[in-house]
């Protein structure tokens, strides 16, 4: 420093950077297409999240993979599957499922079409770019862009598919037809999963169906472009989903991790498999997605939720599972109230359920 020179640092204007980025309506892919070689500061992970990077080898753990073959057949096979669901839900909060009834060709085509949406001309995508979550199709980059500690390295498009499905012409052309076919398959699978989870909890098979857990479905399609500095940012921050259950379709790139016994564990892609993420009887697992050099990574999260549909029904700990020794741990709330809290909170690393804890 030269004598008499005044040293100062310009104040970082995060709000202006976020605003300028959002107004482009081209998302993270737009940055990559423009040839960015450094991750902008708005995407930098907060320092306190570093150190959660050690991931033990998959050989140290047995990632649950449940084969649904024969679940509608003899009772002993179904009981065996229910027991696997119970164990995976209590100990892990997630499991992968195979022989789920959705053709592999549909899974593969869904991923191809989602990638096609994000890689089409920017002007076509901009038609759907919005921060208005009441629309049936919402395309943007980071739903919590204005509130999260750091933006995630991904772009998304959300389609509200049930109970009030959009008209075909309301959906983007690249995945219009396959979205309806894939949704039909996921809805059928969801009904089966809610039956199995009900039975795993010791309830009647139709218990969760009767309280509308399978009534609403939203499809959230993510696109994670290749990142020039993946160590500086993250694809999706640590969080637990705010839905009844989530059925996740992921491609071959990998990057999904779950927090198990305070350690981040890779969830390796299994061809043809789907990932299921589920009053603390069953765990709501925290998970994240790493940024990567190779990209793009594509995934489709099917959210069983009625959060975007006004409904006065109150949800809370299942009364049949409560007792003097196991009192309720959460207050009752509507799905809409829970979803609004989740949306406003954003992916800040904390569970949205803490807000409803008694």
Automatic annotation (TrEMBL):
Pfam families: 2OG-FeII_Oxy, DIOX_N. The keyword Coiled coil does not apply. Residues 215-307 form the Fe2OG dioxygenase domain. It comes from the Eukaryota. Keywords: Iron, Metal-binding, Oxidoreductase. Its cofactor is Fe cation. GO terms for molecular function: dioxygenase activity; metal ion binding. Belongs to the iron/ascorbate-dependent oxidoreductase family. This is 1-aminocyclopropane-1-carboxylate oxidase-like protein 3. It comes from Hibiscus syriacus (Rose of Sharon). The lineage of its organism: Eukaryota, Viridiplantae, Streptophyta, Embryophyta, Tracheophyta.
């Amino acid at each position: 420093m030269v004598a008499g020179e005044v040293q100062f640092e310009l104040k970082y204007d995060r709000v202006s950077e976020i605003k300028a980025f959002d107004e482009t309506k081209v998302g993270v892919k737009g940055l990559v297409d423009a040839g960015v070689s450094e991750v902008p500061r708005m995407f930098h992970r907060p320092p306190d999240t570093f150190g959660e990077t050690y991931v033990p080898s998959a050989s140290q753990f047995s990632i649950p993979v449940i084969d649904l073959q024969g679940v509608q057949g003899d009772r002993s096979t179904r009981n065996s599957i229910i027991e696997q669901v119970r164990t995976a839900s209590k100990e892990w909060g997630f499991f992968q499922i195979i022989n789920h009834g959705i053709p592999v060709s549909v899974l593969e085509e869904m991923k191809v079409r989602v990638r096609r949406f994000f890689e089409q001309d920017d002007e076509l995508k901009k038609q759907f770019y919005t921060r208005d979550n009441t629309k049936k199709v919402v395309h943007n980059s980071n739903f919590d862009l204005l509130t999260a500690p750091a933006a995630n390295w991904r772009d998304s498009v959300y389609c509200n598919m049930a109970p009030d499905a959009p008209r075909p012409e309301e959906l983007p052309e690249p995945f219009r037809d396959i979205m309806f076919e894939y949704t039909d398959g996921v809805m059928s699978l969801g009904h089966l999963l809610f039956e199995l989870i009900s039975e795993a909890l010791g309830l009647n098979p139709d218990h969760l169906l009767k309280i509308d857990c399978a009534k609403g479905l939203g499809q959230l399609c993510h696109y994670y472009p290749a990142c020039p500095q993946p160590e500086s940012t993250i694809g999706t921050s640590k969080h637990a989903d705010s839905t009844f259950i989530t059925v996740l379709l992921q491609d071959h790139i990998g990057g999904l991790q779950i927090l198990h016994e305070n350690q981040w564990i890779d969830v390796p892609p299994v061809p043809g498999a789907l990932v299921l993420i589920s009053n603390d009887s069953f765990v709501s697992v925290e998970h994240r997605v790493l940024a990567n050099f190779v990209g793009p990574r594509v995934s489709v999260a099917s959210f069983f939720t009625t959060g975007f549909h006004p409904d006065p029904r109150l949800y809370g700990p299942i009364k049949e599972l409560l007792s003097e020794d196991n009192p309720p741990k959460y207050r009752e709330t509507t799905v809409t109230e829970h979803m609004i809290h989740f949306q406003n909170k954003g992916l800040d690393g904390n569970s949205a359920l803490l807000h409803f804890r008694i």
